[in-house]
From TrEMBL:
Organism ancestry: Bacteria, Pseudomonadati, Bacteroidota, Cytophagia, Cytophagales
Organism (species): Hymenobacter persicinus
Top-level taxon of origin: Bacteria
Name of the protein: STAS/SEC14 domain-containing protein
Length: 133
């Protein structure tokens, strides 16, 4: 008998990195609407407690596509994050995902709200984010 499959859905690890002046969100596994909403609301609570203009959003270990969450991110989370002080986002994508329709849709819809750059390399994303005002 085969062992059970590991749980693929997970919530991100959110850390305030005061040394670099950003919040680091490391996502892994399959991202469901519930996971994204729970983490997004936690991020907004972190911003409410202590505003931060930079987000390092690491999806390098995410599995699958997430078009279903884009409406919630754009229509609910992004306006709240902008109001709370977010201005700049370094987005690290899983290999091969940067060209997906879901990511293209999200990039297009977030562009008016945030200065955003997309990367497949975490080190390059960190360097870019450090250079932003």
């Amino acid at each position: 008998m085969l062992p059970p499959l590991p749980e693929l859905t997970s919530s991100p690890h959110l850390v305030r990195d005061r040394e670099n002046g950003w919040i680091y969100a490391h996502w892994s596994g399959v991202q469901t609407m519930e996971v994204v909403q729970t983490a997004g609301l936690h991020y907004l609570e972190m911003m409410e407690q202590e505003p931060c203009s930079h987000l390092l959003n690491d999806h390098h270990d995410v599995i699958g596509r997430f078009l279903v969450v884009n409406d919630w991110i754009v229509d609910y989370w992004a306006p709240q994050a902008r109001k709370a002080g977010l201005r700049t986002v370094a987005q690290v994508m899983a290999p091969g995902v940067q060209v997906s329709p879901a990511v293209r849709d999200l990039m297009r819809r977030l562009a008016p709200r945030f200065h955003t750059a997309f990367f497949t390399d975490l080190a390059k994303a960190r360097l870019w984010l450090r250079a932003q005002p």
